[in-house]
Amino acid sequence: MRDLTVLVLEDELFQRLVTVTALETLFPGTVLQAADGHEAVAALEGCEHVDILLCDLKMAGMDGLAFLRHATSSGKVRAVILCSGLDPVLRQATVLMIHCLGLIFLGDLGKPFNIGGFSQLANRYRMLCNASPKSLSSTEMPSLSEVLQGLDNGAFEAYYQPKVTLQEEILVGAEVLARWVHPEWGVLAPAHFLPVLEQHNLIDRMFWHLFEQGLALHQRMSAQGMLISLAFNLHPAQLACSTLTERIPIMLKRAHVPSTCVTFEITESGLLSAPANSLENLVRLRILGCGLAMDDFGAGYSSLDRLSELPFNEIKLDRAFVSKMQSQPRSAAIISCSVALAQALDISLVIEGVETTEQRNRLLGLGCTTAQGYLFARPMPKSHFIDYCRSRLIAHVEVLNKGKSFEL
């Protein structure tokens, strides 16, 4: 196990001595210390790198915030643990700043210093350092020729992630997601290929592949008595296309799919500088009878403004609010307000990123009704999704036999 270099930035003498002594006693490696940012800068200059910065924030002279900025420019600090008595809201804002600076954030120990908590976070750092690389990293992109070959061979497949009610887990729809079934790397998520598609204006080509697959599935399931609503993601660049709202009704009619069974999800950030024809297409999609969902609601800077201006009938709350419910009380308040907002506007609210039973129970208490996430189901290929829906249909029949109502 590799020894670590730790820098303790703490202005209170007693607290600093306790921390340094505990680290030197229990952890092999080098422990540096500094009473303010200027001393920390000097400590950095005298060493090759610092694995973990144990950082207080408020102090005279150069404070912890200023030093974090300097640490980024030096390139010598790899990870940060906060150890501060500041208000939790201010510490959380600092966590966001740490992420933006490109540093690894390991955790927030607060004050007083807890050696057990540090031990756990240090082990987490070692695990990150020792993690074996994946066959295709999230930053490694395939070539244009590989993507074109995949499109030509029909290797981009529609995967389906169910949307369910939180209380009874009744299926209410599914989001259609792009996956590339690569012959060497297996099933790839959009992070691996979307930048290449965007760069070479291939988003539209992939979208129509997925749209056709989704409509074919809907047609097949409808013939078996299973009616399902499908949501497709529209890229902002597609909204400016004049043929978008001409082609969609033709394909819907050909597949015998009601427009009311199709929703298009658009991220709010993609509409910040949308041209007039993009806004026209949004209106035309609603006139056609299709649904419009504002995706990643709350992640942008003008969600409320766009929601009031454009004809959305659904909002999907960004998954970040769910993941931060436990650590940030304000996130729960934002979710509760989103519930009230959706009710006041008479539109649907879907909560994204529900992964644990604890999150589900908390969301139910906040008044949420519909969600999607790994707790209920991961995105799945067509055959698995059909089996999933059939199992729901069996549950439907069993419930009806008991005299209760159920909707698929």
TrEMBL record:
Keyword annotations from UniProtKB, A to Z: Phosphoprotein
SMART domains per record: EAL, REC
Positions of post-translational 4-aspartylphosphate modification: 56
Keyword DNA damage: no
InterPro entries documented for this protein: CheY-like_superfamily (IPR011006), Cyclic-di-GMP_PDE-like (IPR050706), EAL_dom (IPR001633), EAL_sf (IPR035919), Sig_transdc_resp-reg_receiver (IPR001789)
Domain Response regulatory, chain residue ranges per copy: 5-126
SUPFAM superfamilies: CheY-like, EAL domain-like
Domain (EAL) ranges: 140-393
Pfam families tied to this protein: EAL, Response_reg
Sections of the chain in a coiled coil: none
Protein name: EAL domain-containing protein
